[in-house]
Amino acid sequence: MKRNKLKKRVLPAVLAASFAISGLSLPAKNVLANEEIVKYHQELKTPSYIIGTWQAPEGLSKEEAVYAFLQSKANLFKNAGYEAKDQFKIIDQFNDKETNTHHFRTVEQYNGIPVYGSQQTIALDDKNKVTAFFGKVTPNLARSIIPTDAKLGEDEALEKVKDSIEDKIGEVKSYDGIDGELVIYPHNGQKHLAYYVTASTSAPAPGYWHYFVDAATGNIIHSYNSIAELTPSSPEQPEAQQTASFQPAPKALPTVSEPVQARGMDIFGTLQSFQAVKDPETGTHYLFDGTRSEGVHTFKANRMPENAFIILSALLGMTGFEVESRNNFFYDPSAVSAHVNAGKVYDYYNKVHGRDSLDGEGMKLVSTVHIGSKWNNAAWNGKQMLYGDGDGTRMISLSGGLDVIGHEMTHGVITNTADLIYENESGAINESIADILGAFAENKTGEDLWLLGEDIWTPNTPGDGLRSMSDPASVYIGGYTESGYYPDHYSKRYVGELDKGGVHINSSINNKAAHLITDGGTHYGVSVTGIGKTKAEKIFYRALTHYLAASSDFSQMRQAAIQAAKDLHPDQNGQPSAEVKAVIAAYDAVGVN
Questions:
Q1: In a shared domain, residues 123 and 206
Q2: Which of 197, 244, 394, 529 would suit a FRET pair with 93, their CA atoms being 20 to 30 Å apart?
Q3: 415, 447, 474 — which closes off a domain?
Q4: Which amino acids are annotated catalytic?
Q5: How far apart (Å, rounded) are the C-alpha atoms in residues 426 and 439?
């Protein structure tokens, strides 16, 4: 699917997703009026979704139809009397040829400044009927009085963030990426003019940092590390640490290289064949596969005491130490596993969903192995995938888990689509979709499909996994929930500040819905007839890429899945298709309305 990407800086980026353990949702009520279904955000009292067939006036372009729709709903958005073109900005759009529909992403703005977290999705059919709206809209925004003259410069804000990060993790020699943007940041009932700064680090500790710096005072309003890890950190599982061993400086990949077929053993001792490149002058081989768009590039961190990821060159695009071999056989099993599995996940998205890499435009896939010392985690830091070696008891090298790599790479897809904020319910949906599509990418059958990380988890204990999507309540997580186990129903969700509001804990609720949609079953007295993996994976991918927005909660996740199912499996003789019925029943079964 070709996308017409307008210039945008993805606002709520918050993807640091881990494969491990949030989500407090705001209930809302349903209203049926003029053949529209409107669900309201309980706190804001503005629509969180609108489902209907609003017809645009004749002669309007698709873009004009979007603004006309938003203008027609000004009363619902509590911004009557103000122009929709002033309040909303189109940041992305694409045409879906499979269903002949057009899809837009918009962001709310104040005096031309984007409002953090207030993104929307709007779907139109071929006759300019708006069939769905999802998102978050700030009421009375245009009537608000918000100073927009920044007294603090962007460079000053970046320095404050760097100082804060280094206070937490130590000196950062080089950032994988750091960027700032002026936004309106609603927080604790106030609207601040702030710099939204995101920073990605690989060392001395992995991080995907999100900071909001008051543009008037320079104070840090809020911050968090949304590193997309496989598991949450705990006293028993420390953050990645660096050893004191000396390592040589990294070298850049040769600008002239020859593609070669290479081999190597993965972490399970299986011989793998894969693409690599050779320097024709030195004969040195490197783990770079140029056959998949901009490439699959695998590095090693070597557990250095200083930043192991210095930017090598514009050709590399990312950071790391090259994995080298004097011939076409590679002897680093963790690197071989990461390299091969990244290629498999790329192929899954390309063949099943027609997606060209994480951004849909051929983005280079960068992985780095040997992060820290015995680190029991894997992560997406907004720029690349990072994999620990495990401690050998709780986990083995995490790059060996195809669903683990699928999980982390899906976080990259999420960053480039809905960009679900990595806190509370939107963060739990973020984690869940990474689990769901990561499992589908692994493409196992039976119960093995629904166990996450089973290949790298507790190597001496067969038949278990980090999480179970088919039976979440069978996996113990400690004192986060009343039962001590992952919740399998919305009524049992975790509500608190730990795990960034339960991003891993509450992901299991949506995971169970995905299992029921796929395989069927009876859960809390609700029976679901499964529709199979092939249909289910398409529904969840479409819900993510077409309907979910940055602040989506569980209720919006349910409706997004219903809309996706309706798109792919339209009503028959005025009755919902079996696929739509399965989605509705599954979310009923897990208590999401």
A1: no
A2: 197
A3: 415
A4: 408, 504
A5: 20
